[in-house]
Design goal:
This protein has about 220 residues and is mainly alpha-helical. The chain contains nine helices and no strands.
């Protein structure tokens, strides 16, 4: 077993322990279950592909080829997905950076949660950049509309990565808003008893942190 695989399994184990701790602390599945499922998919995707797709088979299309190169056989894959998992691991009841005294800490207007947010924004941006470049290199002459779109995105990485990050940020923050309100309703408005923290100010800081990570990744990419 290779080191990147051991790292993924180790991260998943800590993630599962965090989900269980939050389950026992808050007695609601609205936060721990979606985070556990989402991160399990991202962390264990290489193993799923190895089980479903024989290693000796020849990819029949660009998507399969890219999944082989970027996920199944890529030792760097763990680096792309670790920050997302770390963000949830840091919500463990014993050292939660999203609420309580640690949640109130501010540095340059940002909380401690800006660290996993910016790291995730950085990792996602690099993942999209590397995926587009890999796809463009695998199909350099194909003239289908899909491959032409992929090459266009690869030639405009700032716009492409910004769009992907903006879309995922909106989906994620809207999901947090819905879960936060649902948990508040279940607990009669007592914010101390809920797992998911959300506010307009917090959302603004999250967006800033995400795009600080994007800016750093694009700056390194240009160099």
């Amino acid at each position: 077993m290779k080191l990147p695989d051991l790292l993924r399994y180790g991260i998943w184990g800590v993630l599962a322990a965090t989900a269980d701790a939050n389950r026992r602390e808050y007695h609601m599945s609205t936060t721990w279950l979606p985070h556990l499922i989402t991160n399990s998919i991202t962390l264990l995707l290489p193993d799923v592909l190895r089980l479903l797709i024989p290693s000796k088979r020849k990819p029949s299309n660009l998507v399969e080829d890219v999944m082989d190169e970027m996920v199944r056989d890529n030792p760097k894959y763990v680096v792309y997905v670790a920050p997302l998992a770390a963000g949830y691991i840091l919500s463990h009841p014993k050292f939660n950076i999203f609420k309580g005294d640690m949640g109130d800490i501010r540095v340059a207007g940002l909380g401690l949660d800006a660290i996993p947010h910016s790291a995730t924004g950085f990792a996602l941006t690099v993942l999209v950049q590397d995926t587009l470049q890999t796809a463009a290199e695998l199909e350099p002459t194909n003239k289908s509309l899909f491959t032409q779109f992929v090459r266009w995105c690869n030639e405009h990485p700032s716009l492409a990565t910004f769009g992907v990050l903006a879309a995922l940020t909106f989906i994620w923050e809207y999901g947090e808003y819905r879960v936060h309100n649902h948990e508040l309703e279940l607990q009669g408005g007592d914010i101390s008893k809920i797992n998911m923290m959300w506010s307009a100010d917090d959302t603004a800081r999250d967006v800033i942190a995400n795009f600080l990570g994007w800016s750093a990744a694009r700056l390194i990419g240009r160099r």
